[in-house]
């Protein structure tokens, strides 16, 4: 068997994806103009698929902070956190994130992927049981490949499915570690966190919640689903990323566990990679200040989510189950999804396309992510364009439109 | 590790006692695999799940979750990774049922 033979199935899927002439995995942002616009294929595009929920990538105060940090401390740390890569600013950022959550400890990682990979695989060790949601992010699945713990999946967002699996463990020794996400990245749905926490408490399980897509978006202070569900104190570990709402890159974990700091010399993805460059640390610290100082960005984000979600729903599109900063549009199959995606690009709108095997239950999706700084006009234009394409491709039939039109 | 290779005969005996005959287990597995059957070839104990059927790794894990709930057992992911044939899956289910 040749080196690449095992990827034959994937190669076939990839060929399908490229039949439209554009390769969604090799789109080039020729020039990014703002959080909502970029030049792609030589023309200006509306961006509705960038996870840039507050639009902070171009926030002048964050940009200035990064520039100043480069002038003061150079372009990179050239070392890991356990060697020469811990600057006062890394420690200050950790303190500020811990304070933001009201937790005692925080560790900052170079990416969100590394935070999940290292933490989950280290926290659950030999003899322990790791229980993960079926729709977990790749970083969580990859942690499962690295851990010595036994791994069991439970049905997506189904506390009774988790409970059955905890119950079956009976009185077997080992720590139970449950991994959940605040908002799931494909369909934008939130975990029923309170119910999950009740189950975890009943069985004495530790809880890790990944707030990658919910930081800033959920909770009165933007701390995520743990805050909006009122269970901050019941979540043993909260993980998140700087690469979405905070507009940069990096990951973090906060906790009240008194022994938390031992992770600094046990989590390999923390120990054996270079730390974040000073510019990133500076822009993230500033972005966190912006999140605290400007709650109106959260209000605006949800207003935009409502515009897009309700607008598309009214036209008859099948969407993810609830409003969320990610709006997943269901399409009947892979080729329709790719054709739709390509047609949108031709019409000047960039979204993400997600097809099996990267999606739960084999669904094909257009994955739109909403930004607080999208204008109402931009989103209404998008709904109009998508409706046109949907009718052309037979995804929306005229009957749907009439029924919806008559009913409202 | 949940799955050990101790006393297979004994385990199967206990499985029968707890009411999961080999036939029932195989029937239930086949019911879940039927949608992924290719052509006329029947699904048997020798069927290599990931190779002989049109099922991807995610769908295999989802099918395992259904079987887990049907038999009220949990099959850890690392154990699933070692299972290739329908017979091997049935063996695992019977063993786990026996120690339930």
Give your account of this protein's structure:
- The complex is a heterodimer of chains A (408) and B (100).
- Chain A is an alpha/beta fold and 408 residues long.
- Helices cover 40% and strands 16% of the residues of chain A.
- Chain A has 2 domains: 145 residues, Alpha-Beta Complex (Aspartate Aminotransferase, domain 1); 235 residues, Aspartate Aminotransferase, domain 2.
- Chain A has a 7-stranded mixed beta sheet with strand order 4-10-9-8-7-5-6, with helices on both faces.
- In chain A, a hairpin with a 2-residue loop joins β1 and β2.
- The C terminus of chain A is likely disordered.
- With 100 residues, chain B is an all-alpha fold.
- Helix content of chain B is 58%, strand content 0%.
- The longest helix of chain B is centred in the middle third of the chain and has 15 residues.
- The N terminus of chain B is likely disordered.
- The interface between A and B is medium-sized, with 19 and 19 residues.
Give the SSE layout:
The complex is a heterodimer of chains A (408) and B (100).
Chain A lengths: L7 H11 L12 E4 L2 E4 L2 E5 L12 H14 L14 H14 L3 E5 L2 H12 L5 E5 L4 H9 L3 E5 L4 H11 L6 E6 L11 H10 L3 E5 L14 H4 L8 E5 L9 E5 L12 H4 L6 H16 L2 H19 L11 E6 L2 H13 L2 E2 L1 E3 L9 E6 L6 H17 L5 H10 L1
Parallel strand pairs in A: 3-12, 5-6, 5-7, 7-8, 8-9
Antiparallel strand pairs in A: 1-2, 2-3, 4-10, 9-10, 11-14, 13-14
Chain B lengths: L7 H10 L4 H12 L15 H4 L4 H15 L5 H4 L5 H13 L2
Helix pairs in contact in B: 1-6, 2-6
């Amino acid at each position: 068997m040749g080196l690449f033979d095992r990827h034959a199935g994937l190669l076939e899927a990839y060929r399908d994806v490229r039949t439209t002439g554009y390769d969604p995995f090799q789109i080039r942002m020729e020039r990014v103009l703002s959080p909502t616009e970029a030049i792609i294929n030589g023309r200006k595009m509306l961006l509705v698929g960038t996870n840039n929920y507050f639009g902070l990538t171009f926030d002048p105060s964050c940009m200035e902070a990064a520039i100043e940090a480069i002038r003061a401390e150079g372009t990179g740390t050239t070392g890991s956190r356990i060697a020469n890569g811990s600057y006062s600013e890394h420690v200050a950022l950790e303190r500020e994130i811990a304070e933001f959550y009201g937790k005692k400890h925080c560790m900052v990682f170079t990416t969100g992927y590394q935070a999940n990979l290292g933490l989950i695989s280290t926290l659950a060790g030999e003899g322990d049981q790791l229980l993960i949601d079926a729709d977990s992010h790749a970083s969580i699945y990859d942690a499962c490949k690295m851990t010595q713990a036994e791994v069991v999946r439970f049905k997506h967002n189904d506390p009774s499915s988790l409970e059955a699996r905890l119950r079956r463990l009976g009185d077997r020794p080992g720590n139970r570690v449950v991994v959940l996400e605040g908002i799931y990245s494909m369909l934008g749905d939130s975990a029923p966190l309170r119910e999950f926490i009740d189950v975890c408490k009943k069985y004495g399980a530790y809880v890790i919640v990944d707030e990658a897509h919910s930081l800033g978006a959920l909770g009165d202070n933007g701390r995520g689903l743990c805050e909006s569900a009122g269970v901050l104190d019941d979540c043993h570990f909260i993980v998140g990323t700087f690469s979405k709402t905070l507009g940069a890159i990096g990951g973090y974990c906060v906790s009240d566990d008194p022994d938390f700091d031992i992770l600094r010399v046990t989590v390999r993805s923390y120990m054996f990679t270079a730390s974040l460059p000073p510019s990133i640390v500076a822009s993230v610290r500033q972005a966190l200040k912006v999140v605290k100082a400007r709650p109106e960005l959260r209000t605006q984000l949800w207003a935009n989510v409502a515009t897009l979600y309700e607008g598309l729903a009214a036209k008859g599109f099948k969407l993810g189950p609830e409003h969320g900063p990610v709006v997943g549009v269901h399409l009947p199959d892979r080729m329709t999804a790719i054709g739709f995606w390509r047609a949108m690009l031709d019409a000047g709108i960039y979204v993400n396309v997600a097809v099996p095997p990267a999606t739960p239950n084999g669904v094909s999706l257009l994955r739109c992510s909403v930004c607080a700084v999208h204008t109402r006009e931009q989103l209404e234009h998008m709904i109009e364009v998508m409706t046109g394409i949907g009718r052309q491709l037979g995804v929306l039939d005229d009957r749907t439109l009439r029924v919806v039109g008559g009913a409202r | 590790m949940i799955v050990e290779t101790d006393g297979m005969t004994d385990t199967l005996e206990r499985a029968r006692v707890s009411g999961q005959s080999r036939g029932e287990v195989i029937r239930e597995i086949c019911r879940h695999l039927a949608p992924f059957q290719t052509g006329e070839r029947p699904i048997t104990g020798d069927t290599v799940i990931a190779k002989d059927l049109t099922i991807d790794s995610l769908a295999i894990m989802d099918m395992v979750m259904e079987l887990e709930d049907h038999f009220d057992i949990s099959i850890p992911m690392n154990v699933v990774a070692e299972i290739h044939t329908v017979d091997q899956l049935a063996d695992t289910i019977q063993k786990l049922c026996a120690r339930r």
